[in-house]
Design brief:
It is a multi-pass membrane protein. Keywords: Cell inner membrane, Cell membrane, Membrane, Transmembrane, Transmembrane helix. It contains six helices and no strands. With about 120 residues, the protein is mainly α. The protein folds into two domains: about 55 residues; about 40 residues. α5 runs antiparallel to α6. The termini are far apart.
């Protein structure tokens, strides 16, 4: 199951409809129980590792990830609202968007001192 979640997380890095972070958190949880070696690899990965580390250590996400995720959330919900014909579905999607953004935008952000490895 861990590899399934990694695949969805990797796809989410490129597709606007899929989120990356929740899938990687699920993959990490699966690997921590099933294969600590793969869990360590995932946490050391140059792309996925910082996202997981920020979440596990600080329960926060970086400002850059938050901005990109917000744009993708709004874009995917807007596209969905454009595509569905029923007005009540558009209203439900709008309500879901508002609730999701209210929750997501309240997540704490990590503070970065500088972009270099020496300062971390």
């Amino acid at each position: 199951m861990g590899w399934f979640w990694v695949a969805l997380g990797a796809a989410g890095a490129f597709l606007p409809v899929l989120p990356t972070t929740p899938f990687l958190l699920l993959a990490s949880g699966c690997f921590m129980r099933g294969s600590p070696r793969i869990a360590n690899w995932l946490h050391a990965h140059p792309t996925f590792g910082p996202i997981l580390t920020d979440w596990y250590q600080q329960r926060a996400i970086s400002r850059r990830v938050k901005k990109r995720a917000t744009v993708m959330i709004v874009a995917s919900f807007s596209f969905s609202m454009y595509m569905v014909p029923a007005l009540w579905l558009k209203g439900m999607l709008l309500l879901c968007l508002i609730v999701l953004l209210c929750w997501f935008l309240r997540l704490p952000e990590t503070e970065s001192v500088a972009g270099t490895a020496e300062n971390s």
